[in-house]
Specification:
Blueprint (H helix, E strand, L loop, with lengths): L6 E6 L7 E6 L5 E6 L12 E7 L5 E7 L13 E3 L15 H8 L3 E6 L8 H5 L8 H15 L9 E2 L4
Parallel strand pairs: 6-7, 6-8
Antiparallel strand pairs: 1-2, 2-3, 4-5, 5-7
Length: 166
């Protein structure tokens, strides 16, 4: 905003949608479009993003985000599955726009972004549960999510792909 707060930029986003930016003039007539964070997706129908929870093999509740192909619901499954764990490990995914998840969903895949033990944002105990588990329970937490989606009929049985960076 300006020093007198008469003009400001505003970011507007919703689950799974890229942010749009607007110019707001408090003394002016309206809000004016300023920019799009991902204009290449502006004319596309994007997949739905929803928070899901499942139990890891040892009973720890794991939250993640499931992106489905555009216009599809879980009952339209099973879909081929892509697991897209975040980097870190002390990081996390949210329901915000993720171009990788949306690109795979547009190709017909369900995408699970698990916030495995050790992820940030769930308290110190959850974060500490990841200590010493890089390559162990952090991985099986993600695999447990894939198996849960198969059991729920959302993911196709017989395999899936795990991708990521960081």
């Amino acid at each position: 905003w300006t020093r007198d707060k008469s003009i400001m930029t505003v970011s507007v986003a919703s689950e799974g949608k890229p942010a749009d930016y607007y110019l707001f003039e408090t003394n002016g007539p309206a809000v004016s479009p300023l920019a799009q964070s991902a204009p290449q997706f502006a004319e596309r129908t994007l997949g739905s993003v929803e928070a899901v929870t499942y139990d890891a093999a040892d009973g720890l509740e794991i939250e993640g985000y499931l992106t489905l192909p555009p216009g599809k619901t879980q009952s339209d499954g099973p879909f081929p599955l892509v697991l897209l764990p975040h980097g870190g490990p002390e990081a996390r995914d949210t329901a915000s726009f993720d171009w990788w998840a949306q690109s795979y969903a547009a190709a017909g895949y369900a995408v699970l972004q698990p916030n495995f033990r050790g992820s940030s944002g769930y308290g110190q105990e959850f974060r500490n549960a990841g200590y010493g588990e890089f390559g162990g329970k952090m991985i099986t937490d993600s695999l447990d999510g894939a198996n849960w989606l198969v059991e729920e009929g959302v993911a196709a049985p017989g395999g899936f792909c795990i991708i990521g960076a960081s």
